[in-house]
Write a structure and sequence with these properties.
The protein contains eleven helices and 14 strands. A hairpin with a 2-residue loop joins strand 4 and strand 5. The N and C termini lie far apart (48 Å). The chain has two domains: 175 residues, no CATH class; 122 residues, no CATH class. The longest helix has 21 residues. Helices cover 31% and strands 26% of the residues. It is an alpha+beta fold.
């Protein structure tokens, strides 16, 4: 079983990351999580020529060092462990490979070529997303690819000295044969500007790094909403009370029986909000049990909740049936992301 998270580290207080320079309000906070979800399922990466041969070693050394600071949400995903999951790994492989927009001429298969994904969301008018994919890529093949599997053209450009490619709303910039940068236009632009400045050092808060580098965690997520609190505690008509007042979220998970085991620490504005969030989670658990037959058998198992001051710690498990049901809903999540209104840039817009 995965060990529960410790309470927030005091070495760096949440919210003490450098100030954001982009006006942003979280009118649609779940778009961020959906985009992370979609980047995992679609792994929309491609490959192209690196900017300079002498920089390859540095660019491959540390994915976290490639990320700009001021991220709201960062996820570190062990793709090998996720694809290798016994019960749903094969289904996940079929799903991600079918969603990949690039054809065989690009020489890229997510389930085969990606070992690790580090994905970050940043404040903007919509939501800027930066993804660092680590694995094995063929930059020359990717540079030659001119059309996606759907027939849509792949727009080629450059920014900050790096070749960039655009397929619909996704932009990617092959850095080396081992590292691929992708995401929204704004997210890729942020990262390339950082690389252009030269020396690379981690710009992520230490408490986030502590969570993201948790040993034996196939999935690790750290989120900081202290400076940009979540404005809505609902997803459409579904009320999600544990979102209200949340300032920090940390989650780790691995693949062990009954399927996935997760542990999280959520920090709120005060103890009252933490207690209310705990009660809200309990009520959702009850509703899931009642509605399970109507939603594909989705249920939360072994839920454990505890509050200490403004912190809420929780542990839970998802069985294989729930994982398969969630995979079935994945195309719907991706449909949300395909809506241009969820981004501040038009689909297909290139980096200039």
């Amino acid at each position: 079983m995965i060990r529960p998270l410790f309470l927030a580290s005091r070495r760096s207080k949440p919210g003490e990351i450098q100030q954001w320079n982009y006006p942003w309000r979280m009118r649609q906070p779940w778009v961020l999580f959906y985009f992370l979800f979609a980047m995992f399922f679609a792994a929309c990466g491609c490959k192209g020529p690196a900017a300079a041969a002498e920089a390859k070693a540095d660019l491959d050394a540390d994915p976290f060092a490639l990320l700009p600071g001021s991220a709201i949400v960062i996820a570190n995903l062990d793709a090998r462990a996720i694809y290798g999951q016994a019960s749903v790994g094969a289904e996940l492989t079929r799903l991600t490979d079918s969603l990949m927009p690039l054809g065989d001429d690009a020489g890229f298969v997510p389930s085969r070529d990606v070992d690790r994904m580090v994905i970050a969301a940043y404040p903007s008018t919509g939501a800027d997303v930066t993804a660092i994919l680590v694995g094995r890529f063929d930059p020359e093949k990717m540079a030659r690819a001119s059309r996606a599997k759907t027939g849509a053209p792949i727009a080629k450009s450059s920014y900050a000295g790096f070749a960039t490619f655009t397929v619909d709303a996704v932009v990617y910039a092959p850095l080396t044969s081992k590292t691929l940068l992708g995401g929204t236009a704004g997210g890729v632009r942020r990262a390339l500007e950082r690389l252009q400045r030269g020396k690379l050092e981690r710009a992520i808060a230490p408490w986030m790094i502590d969570t993201l580098e948790t040993k034996e965690a196939a999935i690790a997520v750290a989120a900081d909403f202290a400076s940009q609190p979540i404005a809505s505690a609902s997803l459409g008509a579904i009320h999600l009370p544990w979102l209200k007042g949340m300032r920090v979220a940390r989650l780790i998970a691995n693949f062990e029986p009954p399927g996935v085991n997760a542990a999280a620490t959520l920090t709120y504005g005060d103890a009252e909000q933490a207690q209310a969030a705990s009660e809200g989670m309990r009520s959702v658990e009850v509703w899931l049990k009642l509605l399970a037959p109507l939603i594909g058998g989705i249920k939360v198992q072994n839920l454990e909740l505890a509050t200490q001051g403004a912190d809420l710690t929780c542990k839970f498990a998802l069985d294989d049936q729930t994982l398969r049901a969630l995979l079935a809903y994945a195309p719907g999540f991706l449909h949300v992301l395909s809506d241009p209104s969820n981004s501040h840039r038009e689909p297909g817009a290139q980096i200039q």
